[in-house]
Amino acid sequence: MLYLFSSKLNPMTTKILYLFSILLLSLNGSPINAQQEKQVKNVIILIPDGTSSSILSLSRWYKYGICPEDECWLNIDPYISGFVKTHSSDAPTGDSAPTGSTYATGHLSHTGFIATYPPSAGKAKDLVNIDPTMAYQPLFTILEAAKLDQKSTGLVVTCQFPHATPAAFSSHTPYRDKYYNIAKQMVYNNLNVVFGGGTKYLSPLKRDDKEDLVAVLKSKNYNYVTTKKDFNRLSSSDSLVWGLFADDALPNDLDTNKDSIPSISEMTDKAIQILSQNKKGFFLMVEGSKVDWSAHNNDPVGMVTEFLAFDEAVKVAIDFAKKDGNTAVVICPDHGNSGMSIGNARMASGYDTVTVASLVKPLRDCKLTADGLASLIKPLTGDTDILKAFKENTNITLNPQELETIKTAMKAGGLSRAIAKIITSRTYIGFTTNGHTAEDVLLANYHPHNYRLGGVVQNSTVNAYMREISGNKNLDSLTREKYCIDSVALKGLFWEIQDRYTGTALDSSHYGTLIIKKDKKSRKRVEIKAYTDYITLFDGKNEVKKMALNGLAINTYLQEPKNKKKLTLNRFYIPKSTGKLVEGLL
Question: Which of 21, 96, 101, 470 is catalytic?
Answer without folding.
Answer: 96
